[in-house]
Amino acid sequence: MREDIFGQQILSEDDICNFYMSNPDKVIKMCLTDKVIQNISTIEFVQYPNIVPYTEPCVSLQEFDKNQQQKWFMPKEYHTMDIALYVLNKCKTEAELQRAGEELFLYQERGLFPLLQYLKYLVDTMKANNIVWGVGRGSSVASYVLFLLEVHRINSLYYDLSIDEFLK
Fold first, then answer.
1. Distance from C-alpha of 163 to C-alpha of 167, rounded to nearest angstrom
2. 62: closest CA among 9, 107, 111, 4?
3. pLDDT (tens digit, 9 = 90+) per residue, 155-168?
4. 49-80 b/e with 16+ CB inside 10 Å = b?
């Protein structure tokens, strides 16, 4: 079984046979149109409402992401928060302001402010519930804005990490 770019499961003929063999008491009615099955669009599953036939996505990956982001649970105070002002207010020096400003421009250019708002909510929720998260890993530590939001604990200015490492 594999998944498409949207996370929908794509069942092969072997997957369906294995499923049927492991659940012989359940009834599956199938009408297969092709011998080689890549996209199964004419399968009717009986008694399995959580299994649906694969359909080709009708939206772009960008539209899918935007639709899913709108479904994130986030309290209104975070949704309406001016995340840029919050981040800039956390800066103490001119160098910090410069770096945070450059990064915020790049985040805004890519339409990622809702993500920053959500990350702020996530960090606050983890703090409130005494949940421990990692120090930081991968290219995310190159983002000074994420450091200010406390997503990670690596000061990219101190270690002179380029934001280009994060945005690759």
1. 6
2. 111
3. 999 999 998 888 77
4. eeeeebeeeeeeeeeeeeeeeeeeebeeebee
